Amino acid sequence: MRSQSAHAVVKIALSVFAVCAFGLSTAMPTESGWSDLTDAHSYSFASNRLNFPTGVIRSPTARSALGQVFNNSPPYAISNIRFLYANFYVAIDGTPNPERKPGNENTIDFATVLADGHAYPVTFDGAESVVLGDGDFRWSDPLRDSDGKPVTLAANSHYFIRTSRSAPAGGGLVVGSGDFGVQPRFSNQFVGDGVEYTSSPQMDKRLEGTVARYRQGSAPVGPSLAVATGWDGSPVYLILGDSIAVGQADYDFGSRGVVGYIPRGLDDESSKRRNFGTMMISGTRPDDQGSEAPGQFQLRLSALRALPNRPFDVIISEMGQNSRYVGGHVLADFQRVERTWWEFWHEVCPSCHIFQTTFPTHARATNNTGWTSSEDQQGDYPNGIRWQAGAWFRTGPLPNYVTTLDVTPAFCDPQHPGFWKTSQWRGALSGGVSRGSTQALVTGASRPTNGDVLVIEPGTPRVEIKNIYNVEGGGPWKVSLTSGFSIDHPDGAPLGLAYTSDGTHPSASLHKAAARLIERYKRDGLLP
To answer: What one-character DSSP code corresponds to residue 140?
Structure first.
């Protein structure tokens, strides 16, 4: 077991300083019954862009999907690579018991790893296809080359996993979510992901050919987890969280395709890149997942426990802000749910230390200003349960195996706690735009920020708020938006930039700011 340094609890009152400063509480880990991650022969996570499916596509006829997902190897060389394929999903609708079954079989027609110019077939008990029963899962065999030798991937290398998955007529095809961190919302955006839907498997693309983008926001098809041997002794993280941890609305994809502030921070190389895997699912809450009961974590943990050891040794939880008690009036109700969540994961991994994040700002925009102004925001600071929860995270008492990571300062306006940070950027349309258009030509004092939010005609009844996913040109700049305009806007219409489009999910700039806090915690030694 790797030792953890103890850190003193920092007591911070709920104030302007509290929500825009740092607070910690810590403890030492304990021993475990399930085999720990111990040496290079243990399995550790082998990709930081995979997650469990989040829904099904149903069709009266047989349906097949060919998906290609970009992956990154850990910061150490890996061998004996294995992939998990699951025939269940985790619903993102916020209802209780999110683990669901499709009600029918799914078939993995084939899976192929594409790396270093080679194509390596994935096998299951020696076969290149496998039928998954309703609610079933299967770990693949260790990846081998044509000579039967283990495939080894170098540290920090890129590879693809191509998968063909089919469902019978009238059945549900299990798929992921398009803005999930499994792949960018816009397939093939920088990282080469793709997904195509057909009536039958595309067996001719098993070892070669391309996987084209099917449509914007298309649901990816791929494995749920990857593990491998070769662990170098550095920390391996399991990330648990909801849509903000996933990186929803973070539309600025880096070279490794990692989005969301926790993955961004762990993936950073200047503070030593850390290996991680995720069980982050949009829309989920701790209330419904602190158990291995059916519908909660039964299926996902059954899949993990099929491995001879845990593939992680540190846990980061971002979970809590979707709790039904956040909107209530009694902090004790939220504390009870959050403690149950922590206790559950402590039982799953007694030797793992748990790091719990604080929450981003949540505030409404008023006067049609679209979060371009601090004065025109409304929130529940300082008495809302979300803010009381943040104070509790900072000052305790917490279980001795839980440490607080204060990330709220990355999101809040230092002068207006409880409100979102605002941008000083202002510009104008260079040429009018028509209803339905997803692009606009804009002028301004500087280049618009990729991944942030374009606010058209702020402060007027004609205001529209659109996420930017790409910026081109040298001024004027062509911005591409995730959805089309609802109305026409004239040449010269005023523009602003914001750091949220809905008052809940931060844009790329704030995810990056929070990632810098994660990097700081790594450098300071709070995060191992």
So the answer is: P
